[in-house]
Design brief:
Elements (H helix, E strand, L loop, with lengths): L8 E7 L5 H10 L4 E2 L1 H7 L6 H10 L12 H8 L3 H25 L5 E5 L5 H7 L3 E6 L2 H11 L4 H9 L4 H7 L2 E4 L4 H17 L1
Parallel strand pairs: 1-3, 1-4, 2-3, 4-5
Helix pairs in contact: 1-10, 3-5, 7-8
């Protein structure tokens, strides 16, 4: 099966924040499969001197900037993740830019038989919009996610909990999933699970 890119099979990697999506994407990349990181795209569209960053400053003011003029992502997160209106305004600025760039990158990779794209906020609409053929869900327990956000990313526990509360519910992701991998263990265990998915992909 191939979606809007015709012969290219587009596979989405999704999961809650801190579940290990980036690690999974890395395993696909090391297997020689082209990948797109939504997190990298999200940073690109609000890079210094970008239209995206200028739009955010128009909405939230210069307090969201670091001393060097770049976006202070931590400060912005603290502003919006306990504020439904602020989060909506953030999404109104960034989501169209992220969508446009990912679609552009998918088109650039349209000669590849398979492309894997990380999409944290995945639902039926997003699947149709990006022409997703199959979905891999990365799962992790609430305790492990919180531990990673606090210990690995240095988040304040209350900020981490606020971020976790606005994630897409597991039930929504599970309805879309062809594959599911668990990331409550170590990276070797996760890599073994992803290797099995990659073998199945190569067989079809």
């Amino acid at each position: 099966m191939a979606g809007r890119l015709g012969k290219t099979r587009v596979i989405a990697v999704t999961g809650t924040i801190g579940s290990g999506k980036s690690a999974v994407l890395g395993f696909f990349a090391r297997a020689g499969i082209p990948t797109i990181s939504a997190d990298a795209v999200a940073r690109e569209v609000v890079a210094p001197q970008s239209m995206g960053l200028a739009a955010l400053v128009d909405v939230f003011g210069t307090d969201i900037l670091s001393e060097d003029g770049s976006l202070d992502r931590g400060r912005l997160a603290r502003l919006v993740f306990n504020d439904d209106v602020g989060r909506m305004r953030l999404n109104q600025v960034t989501h169209p830019l992220i969508r446009s760039r990912i679609l552009e990158m998918l088109q650039e990779m349209s000669d590849s038989p398979v492309v894997v794209v990380e999409i944290p906020l995945l639902d039926d609409h997003t699947v149709a919009d990006y022409g997703i053929d199959d979905v891999l869900v990365v799962r992790a327990s609430t305790e492990r996610v919180l531990q990673r956000l606090v210990e690995d990313r240095g988040m304040d526990p209350s900020d981490a909990v606020a971020r976790m509360r606005v994630q897409v519910p597991d039930a929504v992701r599970d309805q879309l999933a062809r594959w599911s991998v668990s990331n409550d263990g170590d990276l070797e265990d996760l890599e073994r699970q992803v290797a099995g998915v990659i073998e199945e992909i190569k067989m079809h």
